[in-house]
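The following record pairs a protein chain with its ligand, nicotinamide-adenine-dinucleotide.
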Amino acid sequence: MTTIEGKRILFTGGCGFIGSNFVRKIHNNNEITIMDNLSGGKEEFLSDLISKGKVKLLKRDIRDPSSFNNMGEFDMVIHLAADSDVRQGAIDHKFSLDTNVIGTFNLLEFMKEKGVREMIFSSTSAVTGDTDVLPTPETFGPCLPISSYGASKLASEAFISSYSHYHGIKASIFRFANVVGRNSTHGVIFDFINKLKKNNKYLEILGDGSQSKSYIHVDDCVDAMIHVFNRTTKTDIVNLGNSEVTSVKKIAETVIEQMGLKGIPMKFTGGPEGRGWKGDIKHAFLSIDKMTSLGWKNRYSSDEAVNQAVKESLKQILK
Ligand SMILES: NC(=O)c1ccc[n+]([C@@H]2O[C@H](COP(=O)([O-])OP(=O)(O)OC[C@H]3O[C@@H](n4cnc5c(N)ncnc54)[C@H](O)[C@@H]3O)[C@@H](O)[C@H]2O)c1
């Protein structure tokens, strides 16, 4: 069993929302090189660490195999880079393929060439597609994604599994529920706050508002990844989520309340079958039995994670 300590880590997507929180957590005990094209992430999330040389940032694109030239040696890869814009994938179906599948393939080839044998990968509840099996365990199948984002992550899981077998890689594949918290640059909380910042006469809500998902705070998500990786010895899939769900309408109420905008009307777009957009899973609720059995317990419930994340996002967006 090895732990995330004293390692030379190649961290893709390290300037993104989850990546920047993860890098900050582990940079003291590891030597971190971030590969990020900054299409979604922001250098400013880590500018203090980058400018002091505590972490190294390579502005490179994982879609291009030559990005992996002259990279040096690594003990481990943490792979979070992705096109995480799920809505865009509904319009441009090739959107997720290039970054999420080809990018992951390029990275796996690099790991094969360099003999890197340990990996963390960020997958998603979107791999399962619509299901009545709620909470949904890791063993659920067949997985029939309803979005190109979900399809691309399922394909990545499959490639990682095959490379693990061929090349003796231990990969911890994490399927995240909805992750919320500081440095978020997308998602429902970010969306609501920005809409209300622009116009606080009403709040437009995609779908019928009854969409329900479980939310996990980014601090819990990062700590859970470290906890599980440190305690497992072989390639496996583990859901990271919460034991309850929060509705979109409840999130809207929380944002409105924390912004001090009592009584403002909510306008629901209705959406396809009440979804936010075509490809959005209306009720997503991952089982966390496996996560719990590995000894991890979240600090924040789903509602508490939302509350805390709204606080953190308001501080960053309204500053
Ligand atoms: N946030 C969530 O709720 C959630 C849920 C499930 C899974 N995930 C997964 O977790 C990971 C991190 O998500 P996030 O919310 O922090 O998203 P994010 O968009 O903030 O982070 C992704 C990072 O990848 C970088 N990137 C994108 N394309 C790249 C490319 N071609 N080459 C190099 N870098 C590139 C972006 O600049 C960004 O810094 C993603 O893989 C995402 O699919 C997130």
